[in-house]
Queue: 2 jobs
Job 1
Amino acid sequence: MTGSRAVGTSAGGRAVGCALSLALLIGLATIARAHDAGGLPEGETAAPELSRLPELDHFEPAEYPPGALAAGREGSVVLQVDIAADGSVLDAQVVEPAGYGFDDAARRAVMRFHFRPAEVDGEAVAVRVTYTYTFSIVPDQSVPDSDAPAPVAEPAPVSGEHERAAADPDSEHRTTVRQTGGPDRTASARHIGPRELSVQNHRTAEDFLRLAAGVVLVQHGSEGKGIQIFLRGFDAVHGQDVEVLVAGVPINEPSNVHGQGYLDLGFIIPETVRGLDVAKGPFRLDQGNFATAGTFSFELGVPEARRGTTLALTGGTTYRQRGLLLVAPRGAAESTFVAAEAVRDDGFGSGRHMRRAGATAGVRAFDDAHAGSLDLLVAGAIAEFGLPAAVRREDVASGRIGFYDSYRDDTGGASDRVLISARHRIRRGRASLDTLIFGGYRRLELLDDFTGYLAFPIEGDRKRQAQTAWTGGARLRARIGLTERLALEVGLDGQIDRVDQRETRVDADHRSFQEVRDAEFVQTGLAAFAGLLWRPSPRWRVQTGARVDAFHFGVHDRLLDAARHRATLGAVSPRLSVGWRPAGAWELFCAYGRGLRSPEARATVRVGSGADEDHSGFTGGRSAVTTSDSVEAGLRYTPTTTVELGLAAFGTFIAHESVFDHVSGLNLELTATRRLGAEAWAHVTPVEWLDLRADLTLTDARFTGSGHAVPGSPRWTASLAAAVHHASGLRAGARLVAIGSRPLAYGATAGGYALLDVQIGYRTGPLDLALQIDNLTGRRYAEGEFNFASDWDAGPPRSQIPSIHDFAGAPRTARLTLAITL
Amino acid sequence: MARRPIAGAVLCSAVALLSGCDATTESTSTNAAVVADSDGLTPVTTDLGYLVTLDTARFALRDFELTIEGEAHASLWDRARELLVATAHAHPGHYAGGEVTGELPGDRIVTWTAGGARAALGTATLLEGDYHGLNFYFRTAGASDGLGANDPLAGHSAVLSGHASKDGVDRAFTLVIDIDDGTRVVGAPAEQVVRAGTPVTFGFQLLTQDPYAPGTLFDGLDFASLEADGPSGVVMTPGTASHNIFRRTLETHDFYFLASTTP
């Protein structure tokens, strides 16, 4: 019999038919299964990630509105629920009312819910979830349907602003759980997930960095050479102020012959990147050497939705050809995969060719309750590429050279890398331990010329830089919950690099005529940190501590003497981060952190330190660890789970910056600098298949003494992006990026530009076809502009006066990829 | 529902496209006259007790480079000055990595004459900036300089003449110096703010007195030991120990200064 009697649990005996639509809990089963199995969720990394969704542990039945019951009405109320880190409900707002009294009834009930809190890396965090409370009149049923359809996680992994979309395949409900607070969260911290990565035009994984607001990349050569990075007023050059991790392994190359902290990310196969964690500023305790402007952490893995055996072929303008084989067995851990790529590209101008081959393999060796999980990774790549350098703007204007041309046709480079790592993670109750061991081999050779015949009118200014490096290290992270509200964080880092490097001036026949550098050194870095994560109340989060970094250098400069010069330097870096949720939709943040950058090994050898030296000239200052003091304050406003707005103001102050001048071979000390700025961003998901994003970053970087602008960093950047992920298999993306003017040295200014990249793709069955078009409008623009002297006509007269040189950005280029996944 | 954000995005895109097209601007450049300024030729007493009066100095130089302090050197320079440059360790030279933003290219014979008029050396091209350093190269004078075969400077890099007095004995001297062609003097101090539209004249000075330390241009020279050159004079010729001492002094930047001066 189907009666109209409503069922419920009210004391009045009138049953409230409350067939729960626990879309909220969708996905928990998967997570729970992983935890029940004793291991961590697959693919978990040290980067903040929503590793456990909130789980309802106390359900409060709502009273069925009498009027609605009498009228036989049913309804569903969609609420937005703010869950504190302790599992209590901070707030609940009706976002899709049902009327007839359902809304108030549902809200009153939800406010009395209690949850097992969501977690990031084992630490409880606050989240905002969408919850659908369904009122229905169910015959002869007196309790809520606790056996709601088993929640199943959406195949897409956790990510996208720490956002986990979970869907119940048996219902129409889709629940979004968005992290609203975390142990390592600052106002500007961001996690970029596979949904967003999949619609970002890219040639290499480096291009994913462009998704972070305010990041500007400049390629000095061609694909294959390390990029120059600008972030928050820093000209991080090739990586000296930006820390990059890949699967937790530090990638910056200390004391690289081409530049401190040199970053070569060409070995990362883009299809193996499942996430990118962006931490601007040095506010987290685990941010180490080179993180003065921030840290980017690439997470490797293949989400379930993309798993299988994939063969992809790409062809493109500039005669780009690429083949990819990706084997990722379905049902296996995200970190289990094998990928190999081979790519060649003639480039969009002379001297811009590139050839690269690489492979990456990962496997989750085990994952069980007692032993934890172990991920093994090996990656390797070889590449060779051209180095076209920059062209003088006046030469382009006079027709002396084409904008996309190169003065030299014999410059280029080669880059090889092998990287291995093993990562073990285990959790016991409130304690977790994350241990990483890594090692690698690296070879880099560059033959470039940026100045023609300026320094050497006869032979020319070509210089050849070469180095080989062996690296080994380990990282340990532990988090121990002391009480429900207090946790201890500790970490240890160790890394040793043995480097052999050489720089010579070579003539047109590539014969050496001047030795610039010939050194071998061992650089050891050790770090330890400890801190507390304290949640005095559900609305407050305080994380504080300090790290100590020490660097030891043993340098044999073969051009100087036979001795091994030793030096030990260190720095102490306090960090503090506070988060507060005064109201449901608002979060406020503030943070302070000291960042650090080690000096180059070669800089620790003091020229002219002997007693009988000729001291008539300056012999260089002492090498030192450069430290920066950064602050950030900001807020996030999340009125619904489909809208997030954010604003952050930041500042970085450096009193003494030690740089090693490769030209003079001296340590120089820059005058004090300060970098101020603000960034704002918005993320809107008006419909499930559409993401809209916008950001704006303003930066003012100056030397505090003179008031002069720090060269290179754009005064503002902005981007607008739209991404479509339709259930039909259609996906598309468009991203407009605008870069404002950039101050250059000696009072010059680089112009701004705007670029539009688009892509469209369609997947049907095993086939996937994608088209990416960079610079759709075909705008001719200088990706990088620099003001320096050069002379490209052998013989006098030579001018030492700086002139603007351009690094051409890519014209309109397109890539078409056909992939089949079995 | 989605129309508003999309419309906003399009609008913002247009704005960004327009505002993102700022033009590139080169540095502002200007010109400045450079003259040989003899104000630095003051009588000095050397460490060996000679009172030296320099009458004339003629140097064969080329390719003057004017450098701004940049942001990489100020603190070092300030620190050095605070130490009063008491030892050789702290001598100036912090411009070694100085950034060249001004130049007066070409070969020149620079003549300083005590009490003499300022002689024009040429017009330098400079970018706007605060100039703090001067670099230049020594060379060997020759026929291309218009020198006669009997000119004492011909075939040499510098010739200095004057008087050195000690213990009541006054000696006229002529110092003939050879310096390897291309030897660069780096980081001679300069003080001048250059802005477009504001006329500037640089006075290139040879200093007989180190402005930052108790030393003179002629320290270490024992004029009594120099070879006699006639009844009342001495001469220093290349290849002698004294020559080598003095050559090294000239190759350092301690005794040059680029002053702000009047035309």
Note: The radius of gyration of chain B is 24 Å.
Job 2
Amino acid sequence: MLSVMKKFVNKVFRNLFRKKSVLKIGLYGPPNGGKTTLANRICMDWLGEEMGVASPIEHETREVQVKEQINIKSGNREISFSLVDTPGIATKIDYENFVRKGLSEDEAKQRAKEATKGVIDAIKWLDNMDVVIVVLDATRDPYSQVNITIIGNLAARDIPVLIVGNKVDIRKADVKKIKAAFPQYDVLGISAKKGTSIEEFYEALFVLAG
Amino acid sequence: MSLTLQFIPYQEIENLSSLGRIRKLLNIVKEKKIVLLEGRLKKEEEAELIKTTMEEINQDFKGIELAVIYPGTQNLDFVRKLRVQFINALLGDRQGLTIVGPASIIKEIKKDPNRIQLLTLEPSKRQSGKKR
């Protein structure tokens, strides 16, 4: 009963707050799911410029990045928001993994140090979000505890969520498995890199944030 | 080289603060033991556990592997779903099992709704953290 009341109060306050300030849409997920690639796709489509650097080496994004004043239009509808690209959330970071991917030991240690701070910041920023897009790599196992923890925390904060199964251009991508893992959420298969189903993604964003 | 699994009954963490629960789990994991906790942490505590883990990562401690098994209500008929939901409401966070282990020992925990697989690193490679 108390939690229902808490959720109701949170929702009312969030809606009041939303009318006064700019909507914040966060990109969350584990490392290398394609959050920055999706952020770049959105920014290129609507601002004509990229937001950050995507890389095959994990933890390329180690600081929370914010791109303000993005306006998305479709017919008579329009939403304006700040896009927040967050570092990938992980439960372990080993600098030796970066060394194996070609970084020097010093670079790898520095990257690991920054990556741990990035995870902490990403978790801290959860409370600032109005809407969250959880970006999962559709070629990987969706039942990881990091995914469940992120989505569970968003649900606990009553933040609207869209789950994106990214990398559908890769043959072993399995969006159905993500849908089976999170049946109570809308799951959309996209390829942020190739632009596959990106129009459907914007439609879903209108429904979620509009 | 042997693996140590330490079982923690829910009553041992029941009256601890969130910080106390996290501290207890991390202290055991840092002793290179795998924790089997009866029940589960709150969602906010899981996020806090990840945050605290990140704060404490260093040359010796590379992080954790974490998995929570909780009785779901998917693929159940209406009556059984109602029964499971009732039991879950009654027992709260006491239901289920949480597994936390050091990343230097556990390579990966694979989980699907019906089974859980704990993949460990080869003993000879645990010191350097190199994977099989």
Note: The first strand of chain B starts at residue 5 and ends at 8.
